[in-house]
């Protein structure tokens, strides 16, 4: 039996809708700039680049209904509503044709971002890690098995701050579809069961302040709400 010098961390996991079971999370990958209007909002050209990815640590996961502290080292915390894809079957060099065979289910997510740190990192040509991978930065609602989901590729997606709609779009506006994202990502890493993919956010991202509540809604999926203390 292996002995550790201190107790290992608890396995990060996401709730499964209408189930006592949980989905164990291995890694979190995120797609950058996957909605054309958001790319323009950030001053970019939506047709200029292939998909790119960044990561968040699995223990940055936040469940629905959680209150989190306003993060350190930022004065500009932003919400980013996203469709989350849960991988249930691993593989490398996956074809777009077979990509959906690797999906276990879907959920609503919020890619919390320290926008000022991201802006500084971009300007200096540095990694985004500290702007994206901080504590409590990966909000994810309960997952729904893929065979119970309909039209996730053309579903309403929006973010509400204190019940006011701030982001309002559809997943049909994604530049790279879920199969395309899975296929392209699997060229860089061998995907494994338990991996999550945050698939990008539409335009309308904006600030969250202390005392705010932010809800992400995607048609056909459970919503996810996080509050900022």
| Helix fraction by DSSP (H/I, runs of at least 4) | 10-25%
User: Gyration radius, to the nearest Å?
Assistant: 17 Å
Number of helices: 4
- Name the structural class: mainly beta
Q: How much strand?
A: 25-35%
Low-confidence stretches: none
Assembly status:
single chain
- How are helices and strands ordered from N to C? EEEHEEEEEEEHHEEEEHEEEE
Overall mean pLDDT stands at 95
Description:
By secondary structure, the protein is mainly beta. The protein contains four helices and 18 strands. Strands 3, 4, 5, 8, 9, 11, 12 and 15 form an eight-stranded mixed beta sheet that branches. Strands 6-18-17-13-14 form a five-stranded mixed beta sheet, with no helix packed on it. The chain is globular. 39% of the residues are buried.
Give a quick rundown of the structure.
With 229 residues, this protein is mainly beta.
Give the SSE map:
Blueprint: E1 13-15, E2 22-24, E3 28-32, H1 36-41, E4 52-56, E5 61-62, E6 66-68, E7 77-79, E8 81-87, E9 103-111, E10 113-114, H2 115-124, H3 129-132, E11 138-140, E12 144-145, E13 156-161, E14 164-170, H4 178-185, E15 196-198, E16 206-207, E17 213-218, E18 224-228
Parallel strand pairs: 3-15, 5-11, 6-18
Antiparallel strand pairs: 1-2, 3-4, 7-10, 7-16, 8-9, 8-15, 9-11, 9-12, 13-14, 13-17, 17-18
């Amino acid at each position: 039996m292996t002995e550790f010098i201190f107790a290992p961390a608890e396995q990060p996991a996401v709730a499964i809708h209408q189930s006592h079971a949980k989905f164990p999370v291995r890694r979190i990958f995120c797609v950058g700039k996957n909605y054309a209007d958001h790319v323009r909002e950030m001053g970019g050209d939506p047709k200029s680049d292939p998909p790119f990815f960044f990561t968040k640590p699995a223990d940055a996961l936040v469940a629905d209904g959680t209150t989190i502290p306003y993060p350190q080292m930022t004065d500009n915390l932003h919400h980013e509503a996203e469709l989350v894809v849960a991988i249930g079957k691993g593989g490398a060099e996956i074809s777009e044709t077979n990509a959906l065979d690797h999906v276990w289910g879907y959920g609503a997510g919020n890619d919390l971002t320290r926008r000022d740190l991201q802006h500084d990192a971009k300007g200096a040509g540095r990694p985004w890690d500290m702007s994206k991978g901080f504590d409590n930065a990966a909000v994810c609602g309960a997952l729904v098995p893929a065979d119970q989901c309909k039209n996730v590729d053309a579903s309403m997606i929006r973010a509400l701050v204190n019940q006011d709609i701030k982001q309002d779009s559809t997943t049909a506006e994604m530049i790279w579809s879920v199969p395309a994202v899975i296929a392209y990502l699997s060229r860089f890493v061998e995907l494994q069961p338990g991996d999550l993919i945050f698939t990008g956010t539409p335009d309308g991202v904006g600030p969250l302040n202390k005392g705010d509540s932010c809800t992400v809604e995607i048609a056909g999926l459970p919503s996810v709400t996080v509050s900022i203390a």
